[in-house]
Design brief:
By secondary structure, this protein is an alpha/beta fold. It is built from ten helices and 17 strands. The chain has helices at residues 2-23, 63-76, 125-140, 145-153, 164-167, 206-216, 250-267, 283-286, 293-300, 321-341, and strands at residues 47-48, 60-61, 81-88, 94-100, 112-117, 155-159, 220-227, 230-235, 280-282, 304-311, 360-361, 368-371, 379-382, 388-392, 398-400, 407-413, 416-422. The strands form four sheets. An eight-stranded mixed beta sheet has the order 3-4-6-5-7-10-8-9, sandwiched between helices. The N and C termini lie far apart (76 Å).
Length: 423
């Protein structure tokens, strides 16, 4: 009898274990992990063949409609924006950015911000979100105080489509045949110079060369690249787990992610839960990749860039696009405002006229850096792990860093910090 009872208990425990295991949802695989995997669920895709057909934002634009939209904004708001041609794709399609800045006579320093989307051609939700963001900012200038303030105090660049050959792989009139790669079958998010020593499998692609040249000619302080296939905010590093090599701005990134997620969930509480319930992660903790753009931008350009995975489906049905804008709009706008916040923790405390008081050049550098204005406090230089490596007296104007290993360093003077990249 005792043996029978024991067998029944063991059987019950096994059943319970199997039942609980079946109820656990496995962690969603990072879409970057399986570049060969394609979505097979049919989508209801509607295309706009004219600018007028984009009025309700429930369609994807054809390639020519996309170009017409950009041209129309530049024509309608000539004193507020202009089109930058970043470059051309393998097949000769244009890679464009809308550069938003009011035309003024002043020469005040304005921090630069950059949004870029759809480097994976089939992840097209961000493509439409960025087009709608351009339209919203331009039409809101002078009417919406937040939009007006951002445009007056920043230089905002928005690149809606960085892989046009991938998005229009099925032809210029549809995105239904979109695929991940460029025309050379190369994953553009595995094709950037890697700060930690990995070499891309393929030669640098023309789309990435054009993007590298573009960002090198600007001084973007905060940026994001938009993806799809999951809903999660992904901050650097991608190349390491945070336990191995945490990003020096990790605490700042977590606060930024929380603000983005909290705002979004005000409008739709069900989103940004498919990968982590928090809605955010360090990239390498999700899945380690090399030669990605996020790490490249942070390391080589002293730019705080993150990866925003904004839709669980890479290509949404067209009628879902307005709903995604509803819960993303304010978070996307507020992320631009982070450019003003991170220097002081308070957007109202940033004065464009004093932003230049603590800046260094050249940056990156291999030997010496110079300070535009000598700080009034001593300077301490920290390495990526937070260890103090140099201490200098206030009033220092030139710093010799030839003895330091290559990497990212933080210069701190009083309450002000800036990053330097040692090549």
């Amino acid at each position: 009898m005792k043996r029978l009872i024991l067998c029944l208990i063991l059987f019950s425990l096994q059943f319970l274990t199997l039942h609980l295991s079946a109820q656990e949802e496995p962690l969603k695989v990072r879409p970057d992990a399986l570049p060969w995997e394609k979505e097979i669920t049919p989508k209801a895709i509607s295309m706009a063949t004219s600018v007028e057909q984009m009025a309700n934002w429930d369609r994807y634009p054809t390639y020519n409609t996309y170009l017409s939209m950009m041209e129309q904004w530049a024509t309608e708001f000539p004193n507020l924006c202009h089109i930058d041609t970043i470059g051309t794709s393998v097949q000769g399609r244009l890679i464009l950015s809308m550069y938003i800045e009011p035309e003024t006579d002043d020469d005040l320093y304005r921090p630069e911000f950059f949004y870029s989307s759809t480097m994976h051609g089939d992840e097209v939700t961000g493509f439409v979100m960025m087009l709608r963001l351009i339209d919203t900012l331009l039409h809101g200038y002078g009417f919406n105080p937040q939009y007006t303030n951002l445009i007056n105090r920043l230089r905002i660049s928005i690149n809606p489509l960085s892989n046009p050959d991938g998005t229009y792989h099925g032809g210029n009139n549809t995105v239904s045949g979109a695929w991940r790669y460029n025309a050379n079958y190369v994953d553009l998010n595995r094709n950037y110079p890697d700060p930690f020593g990995s070499t891309p499998d393929d030669d640098q692609q023309v789309e990435n060369t054009a993007m590298i040249n573009y960002v090198s000619n600007h001084n973007f302080r905060v940026s994001a690249n938009l993806h799809g296939g999951a809903e999660v905010m992904n901050y650097p590093w991608d190349s390491y787990r945070s336990s191995q090599n945490p990003h020096p701005d990790r605490d700042w990134w977590i606060e930024v992610c929380k603000r983005f997620i909290d705002t979004s969930r005000t409008y739709s509480n069900s989103h940004f839960r498919d990968t982590y319930n928090s809605g955010y992660t360090a990239g390498g903790d999700w899945y380690v990749i090399s030669n990605g753009r996020q790490d490249y931008m942070n390391y080589y350009h002293n730019c705080r860039e993150m990866t925003m995975e904004i839709s669980s489906n890479k290509t949404l049905s067209s009628n879902q696009l307005p709903e995604y804008w509803r819960f993303l709009q304010h978070s996307l706008v507020n992320y631009i405002e982070e450019t003003l916040i991170f220097a002081s923790g308070d957007p109202s405390a940033i004065n464009p006229a004093t932003e230049r008081e603590f800046s260094v050049y050249p940056n990156p550098t291999s030997d010496r850096i110079f300070l535009n204005v000598p700080p009034s406090n001593d300077i301490t230089i920290y390495d990526i792990h937070g260890k103090s490596v140099l201490h200098l007296q206030k009033g220092t104007q030139c710093i010799d860093i030839r003895q330091l290993p290559k990497g990212i360093y933080i210069l701190k003077s009083g309450d002000t910090t800036t990053k330097v990249v040692k090549q």
